[in-house]
Design a protein that fits this description.
With 168 residues, this protein is mainly beta. The chain is built from one helix and 16 strands. The strands form two sheets. Strands 1, 2, 3, 4, 5, 6, 7, 8, 9, 10, 11, 12 and 13 form a 13-stranded parallel β-sheet that branches. A three-stranded antiparallel β-sheet has the order 14-15-16, with no helix packed on it. The termini are far apart.
């Protein structure tokens, strides 16, 4: 028996972004790789690959991705370039903009469903997709010790006033 550790057929464990059960995150996730959510997330999710949402996961916001397998709960919209698979334990409150849809028995969906082409997906998401679709300049150091990527401040810098705190 031999193991094929060097295979490029599947994503490595470090190539999957994960929000574990019990975790609560607010904001925006952007990833060129797969994303797995088992916790609670509020905001927008962008993936150039697949999003998998577990049975106990709760999402408040939009999901924009190539493919998705969904077991959890969402109050928001899906924009899926290819296939959305709604599993038997899912509860969806929102609209679907998808190319293909697979729905298991007992899946719950309340909203509108629009079947779209790849071109329509690109048009619908062109204004909402983050900079991961563009090449960004390397990080530079300023005199005030705050790092910048491109022209914006680091999301990890401490705001100097309440006006600088972004809303989720």
């Amino acid at each position: 028996m031999s193991a094929n550790y060097g295979s490029n057929d599947s994503a490595g464990v470090n190539d999957i972004s994960r929000i574990s059960a019990g975790s609560v995150i607010k904001g925006e996730i952007t990833s060129p790789n797969d994303i797995r959510i088992d916790g609670t997330f509020e905001g927008r999710i962008f993936s150039q690959s697949k999003v998998v949402v577990g049975e106990k996961a709760v999402i408040k916001g939009d999901v924009i991705c190539n493919n998705a397998d969904f077991w959890g709960k969402i109050n928001g919209n899906f924009f899926v370039k290819d296939t959305l698979s709604l599993k038997d334990t899912c509860v969806v409150e929102g609209d679907l903009h998808i190319r293909r849809l697979q729905v298991e028995l007992d899946a719950k969906f309340n909203g509108n469903c629009k079947m779209i082409t790849e071109e329509e997906f690109n048009q619908l998401t062109s204004g909402s997709r983050p900079g991961m679709y563009e090449v960004q300049p390397a990080a530079q150091k300023n005199d005030d010790d705050e790092f910048t990527v491109g022209s914006g401040k680091s999301p990890f810098s401490i705001p100097s006033s309440a006006d600088e705190i972004p809303e989720a």
